[in-house]
């Protein structure tokens, strides 16, 4: 199996990234799809597209996805209120919650989006070595079979048009929550037109919140809340261990349909 990764930038700013784990025979098709994606992102045309194709040197970890919990909120004020409540219930101190929300609101890389994620301990310290790049979770994908299960479930809930975003975020969150030391993750997109985000945890699953920012807002990001991690091990596992989602755990709709 190979890891195929794409990232695109413009004027040194990150525009988009995506990746897959594939058999050798699929590399060309996947690369071509990733190049199309890089060229058609709403944030503009990149002046640099970086594609990496690499053999996997570590055995793949096969996992079942987190369950996808659908919540309904009317706007981003309600959405953030819900996110705060969920994170508190997961044991994240209020100080860390406020700090993480305000970082994502302002653009966590000194007024810009990060390429990767913030790691925050329960005292509110940022543990990622590079505060502009952050930590990039890498080497993960979903099998065709599990992706079909997810797609069919999303269709029933009227969300199939968000399949790509949801599937990629669910794969990433499933990997992040599977790593020892992660307590929870808070995420919303940095794409101006995409207002949805989530709070994910092993305890409660992937809780999707349709509004965590206003339409048009160009900022977003990810925060991994951690406790007692071995810094080096944690980062190596996030970046290097290949994780394949082989089963979709299902959808639970709370508070009616979106
Ligand atoms: N590893 C760590 N952080 C990442 C990665 C990665 N591989 N990819 C993106 N990020 C960070 C980075 O700071 C981006 O600015 C931020 O996350 C947002 O990335 O409907 O689309 O790709 O349920 O814009 C979540 C909701 C959508 C999906 C998330 O994120 C749904 C999304 P984006
Ligand atoms: Mg984005």
UniProtKB/TrEMBL annotation:
Pathway: Metabolic intermediate metabolism; pimeloyl-CoA biosynthesis; pimeloyl-CoA from pimelate: step 1/1. One of its GO terms (molecular function) is magnesium ion binding. The keyword Nucleotide-binding applies. InterPro entries: BioW. It catalyses: heptanedioate + ATP + CoA = 6-carboxyhexanoyl-CoA + AMP + diphosphate. Coiled coil: none annotated. It comes from the Archaea. One of its GO terms (biological process) is biotin biosynthetic process. Its EC number is 6.2.1.14. Its cofactor is Mg(2+). It holds the Pfam family BioW. Keywords: ATP-binding, Biotin biosynthesis, Ligase, Magnesium, Nucleotide-binding. Catalyzes the transformation of pimelate into pimeloyl-CoA with concomitant hydrolysis of ATP to AMP. Belongs to the BioW family. Homodimer. This is 6-carboxyhexanoate--CoA ligase.
């Amino acid at each position: 199996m190979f890891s195929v990764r794409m990232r695109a930038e413009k004027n040194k700013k990150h525009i988009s990234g995506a990746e897959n784990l594939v058999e050798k025979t699929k590399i060309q098709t996947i690369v071509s799809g990733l190049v199309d994606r890089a060229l058609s992102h709403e944030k503009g045309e990149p002046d640099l597209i970086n594609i990496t194709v690499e053999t996997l040197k570590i055995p793949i970890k096969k996992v079942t996805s987190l369950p996808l919990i659908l919540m309904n909120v009317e706007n981003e004020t309600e959405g953030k209120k819900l996110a705060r409540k969920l994170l508190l219930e997961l044991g994240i101190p209020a100080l860390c919650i406020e700090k993480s929300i305000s970082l994502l609101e302002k653009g966590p890389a000194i007024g810009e989006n990060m390429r990767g994620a913030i790691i925050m301990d329960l005292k509110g310290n940022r543990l990622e070595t590079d505060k502009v790049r952050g930590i990039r979770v890498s080497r993960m994908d979903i099998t065709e079979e599990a992706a079909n299960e997810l797609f069919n479930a999303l269709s029933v809930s009227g969300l199939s048009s968000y399949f790509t975003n949801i599937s990629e975020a669910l794969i990433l969150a499933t990997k992040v929550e599977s790593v020892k030391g992660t307590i929870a993750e808070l995420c919303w997109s940095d794409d101006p037109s995409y207002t949805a985000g989530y709070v994910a945890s092993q305890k409660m699953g992937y809780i999707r919140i349709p509004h965590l920012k206003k339409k048009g807002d160009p900022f977003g990001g990810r925060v991994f809340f951690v406790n007692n991690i071995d810094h080096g091990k944690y980062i190596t596992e996030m970046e290097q261990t290949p994780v394949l989602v082989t089963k979709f755990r299902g959808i639970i709709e709370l508070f009616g349909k979106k």
